[in-house]
């Protein structure tokens, strides 16, 4: 549920509106979105919202399953080394 927050912030601060990112996301799967004007992409479209939500849920599930499968197989890293790698 945290992933939409940066997208909404981007849409708001870019001046396109909060529907811009989700409409672009839906354009990955729905043909014809590339032919829409900027003004149309800035407006609310329930179909594009539904498709954008479905894409978001599917990608989130795939990433969660990948982490769920991979995390137990990774070697245990000492905490100072892990924090050092994260901060560099």
Structure, described:
With 88 residues, this protein is mainly α. 65% of the residues lie in helices and 0% in strands. The two termini are 28 Å apart.
Topology summary:
Elements: H1 4-14, H2 19-26, H3 38-41, H4 46-70, H5 79-87
Order of helices and strands: HHHHH
Question: How far do the termini sit from each other?
Answer: 28 Å
Based on secondary structure, the structural category is mainly alpha
| Shape by Cα distribution | elongated
What is the compact description of this entry?
The chain is an all-alpha fold.
List its salient traits.
88 residues, mainly alpha, 0% strand, elongated
